[in-house]
Amino acid sequence: MEAGRVRELHPCFGAKKNRGRIHLPVCPGCNLECRFCDRKINEEEQRPGVTARVITPEEAVGYVEKALQFCPEISVIGIAGPGDTLATDNALNTFRLLGQKFPRLLKCMSTNGLLLKDRAEEVIEVGIDTLTVTVNAVDPALEAKMISGLVYHGRRYEGEEAGRLIIGNQLAGIRKVAAAGVTVKVNTVLVNEINRFHIGEIAKAVKEAGASIYNIIPLIPQHDLRDCEEPSCIDLAIARKEAEKYIDVFRHCQRCRADAVGVPGKNNFSKEVYGGLPRVKDTFSHG
Ligand code: CLF
Ligand code: SF4
Hints:
By secondary structure, this protein is an alpha/beta fold.
């Protein structure tokens, strides 16, 4: 879809009018170990009720229909977790199914980017309109502080080796999908203790790779980074100013859950739409 149309219809890519999105929590697993991500709690709760909160691609159709009744402003189907969207086939299969049923809704996906280089062709073939990649550093030494490790093609990596691997895959992946016409947003989780003075470099690198918009998400201190400070409004303003030298900055992020439904910042119909599903506190979204 051409960029002007995306800006008009997508609440996270600059739409001025009331535009909504439904997040479909279809992705159970992750291949990365972000040190700020509390998904362990979810993993420990491996009882039937909790796993049931991840829905199947087939169930997704019914949830979208229901969501449109509650919120006709919905213009975007987003898949953003709770795990990574490329770690399993669930997200792409869901879009294959929904693309035919709801052709007027934008297909938006969010990923950590570890598998983006490998799966870019599928992302393009499925017709993803907007893709968000979370890039928290472009320096392997800093990325190594953001993650404990990762699993790639069946092998576990740690430290700078892991950092180099994911950064290379993210940037190469962004290049591929952006060149094919997918509108790319990059999210960065701002951690004062780790990447506060690195934001400009990230913004520059992702812009060069083809991203068109950048979103800085202040850390919610938890898990291994629970002792880090929560960035203030001033920290965020400084980081945005730095990024803006290189790329357009999105300023209205609501740090949505992976099962959010409605117009971001205005209303949320998760309960009404997913009401029958048991929920846990940290249904994470990469945004
Ligand atoms: Fe969802 Fe993300 Fe698509 Fe938006 S959210 S997958 S791009 S439809 Fe938006 Fe929510 Fe911020 Fe994300 S306000 S967390 S940026
Ligand atoms: Fe995986 Fe996302 Fe959590 Fe990172 S933040 S560990 S990519 S689910």
